[in-house]
Amino acid sequence: MLKNATRKSPRRFSFRAGFKQCGLGIDVGWYSTKVVWCRSQGRRFSEVACVSLPTQAGSTGTYNHGLTDSNDGLLGTEPRPAEAARRMPANTSNSVADGLLSTNEQFDFSRWSSHQFKSLASRIASAVGDRSVTRAEVRIAMSMVACDFRNVHVQPGEPISLASIQQNIQEALGDPRPRTIAILATEGPRPKIRALSLPQELSNGLAESLDHCSMTPLSIEGTPWGVAEAMLQLQDSTSAINIAIDWSYGDPTLVCLVDNQIDYIRKLTSGGVSALAAQAVQDLGLTPGEAVRWLNLCSQKDSVTPERIGAQRQTQDWVKSNCLNMAKEVNSTIDFMRWRHPGKSLGDICLLGGGAHLSIATDHFQGMLAHPSRVWSRSVGNHQLSAEYAIAYAMAVKGMHHAPVQ
Q: What domains sit in the chain, N to C, each tagged with a CATH number?
């Protein structure tokens, strides 16, 4: 279930020689679902594997079909903008391809049927394969696309109850269904509550489907808590204020930790990978699946060829424009957090998620920020996990009784 915002520093435990633990982290995103499976023995990981699957069944542009110990890119044929342009219909603004819609409608998790829950659960189980999940601690982070995040204003002296907050959210959404709620309370002369909520039937449906596959989740949390956990797992910042951005397929989510607790959450309105992919669909005539593969291809250092250079220059232009808009939002948040917590040090901005894996975007974006930044990465045993697996990894190791020794 969605957890309370308060998050304390990881506890330290004593260890028994040979003590084995197993964790399965699932990051359910708008476009893809990332899965990380870890097994540790004593103070070291003995095995780590990861996979990325399409969240919506039937989508192409599919990632690896089974858990692998490498960070392979997208599978599929190489996108060819010139050929795509020749086959592009006269009006592509409402085109639907690869099983993906140009709006959030198809990815409204709150309206998923039991068949869709079962489909995702079975594909996760198939990817995990014969790896042990019977004793694994399973934890899930749910995309912000599935969540509602809003301010709930209260009058001074007015009693605050979970029931009244739930009613406020239900009335605002015009949706009477019960919701699981996590609360961020703020102090001040006019207190307000920031509430992140998720339909209970969503968390229940996903939990039941995974349970039928012997993967009963211990928790289902909103993306901000997964981002916070990914930051805490790094354990390498001595700054009081730490900002991380989940650069997802949908709208990116900015999370600010102050003294290791979530202090501020902001949904950014620009820079999402979906916006970059939509531009490639419109300008280059690619399908959505091809557009994502095209962005990955443009991020490779040796991808420039004479036949691609025109399309790549065009891609660079609108990627840069999107990154500029996103950087303006982040820079304003940096100013706000410095004003809100004067005298406290600010650590490097941490970028994670699929967008942080695209150097064509990060190279522009990092240069536009008013503060130093870095891309999340983690060395686990003999493997290097990239930024797109940050949240899934954090969920996988959250219940383990140790911080990994590298």
A: 20-57+96-234+378-405 (3.30.420.380), 238-375 (3.30.420.40)
